[in-house]
Design goal:
The complex is a heterodimer of chains A (about 110) and B (about 120). Chain A is built from no helices and eleven strands. Chain A is an all-beta fold and about 110 residues long. In chain B, strands 2, 5, 6, 10, 11 and 12 form a six-stranded mixed beta sheet that branches. A four-stranded antiparallel beta sheet of chain B has the order 3-9-8-7, with no helix packed on it. The chains are: A mainly beta (about 110), B mainly beta (about 120).
Chain lengths: ~110, ~120
């Protein structure tokens, strides 16, 4: 198993550009989440999904869109990037279904918005 | 609302010292889960432990041990005989047992541990 994979590893954007951060998992996990990590702030939940076709907002959803068309993939879209979105983004997945197993994190995507 | 506080921003110790990382949490739920993650300089997040709110037994795994006390809402992490490889940022996190079994983590801001040779 590859686990949770994220692409790209690093990206530079200009203000106003759009892009999609990719996240995929091959563990047949129901639950997937996106977090952002900023210096001194820990990780904060952006959006999460409890299954294909179902998504919901986390603590800091503004400026981000998500969709979940398959169990494996959970892309995060920035429609118009802003410097405040400069961060490291982590995707995570877990089995869910009441088991509350630990979350498995991807390696992260470092995003710089100029 | 859930909250996790890691009051120690940075800790520096000399190798072989014992070190305790503090974690205090707030939640209204009676059922919840507590976690510790390690983030080494390479940046990935490494799962260390998960405890549920009904199990207050302390846990030991090699040089790592965890002290869970509901009375003080704390879940502290101790590294015995620290090593340079323990240098990392350590995060404490909390998850409430929401309906549907979803697991949304609330993280503390992390404690950066530096172990000097």
């Amino acid at each position: 198993n590859a686990g949770v994979t994220q692409t790209p590893k690093f990206q530079v954007l200009k203000t106003g550009q759009s892009m999609t951060l990719q996240c995929a998992q091959d563990m047949n996990h129901e639950y997937m989440s996106w977090y952002r990590q900023d210096p001194g702030m820990g990780l904060r939940l952006i959006h999460y999904s409890v299954g294909a076709g179902i998504t919901d907002q986390g603590e800091v959803p503004n400026g981000y869109n998500v969709s979940r068309s398959t169990t494996e993939d959970f892309p995060l879209r920035l429609l118009s990037a802003a410097p405040s979105q400069t961060s490291v983004y982590f995707c995570a997945s877990n089995y869910g279904g009441g088991t509350l197993e630990t979350q498995y994190f991807g390696p992260g995507t470092r995003l710089l918005v100029l | 609302a859930q909250k996790v506080t890691q009051a120690q921003t940075e800790i520096s110790v000399v190798e072989k010292e014992d070190v305790t990382l503090d974690c205090v949490y707030e939640t209204r739920d009676t059922t919840y889960y507590l976690f510790w993650y390690k983030q080494p300089p390479s940046g990935e997040l490494v799962f260390l432990i998960r405890r549920n709110s009904f199990d207050e037994q302390n846990e030991i795994s090699g040089r790592y041990s965890w002290n869970f006390q509901k009375s003080t809402s704390s879940f502290n992490f101790t590294i015995t005989a620290s090593q340079v490889v323990d240098s990392a940022v350590y995060f404490c996190a909390l998850s409430e047992a929401a309906q549907g079994g979803s697991e949304k983590l609330v993280f503390g801001k992390g404690t950066k541990l530096t172990v000097n040779p």
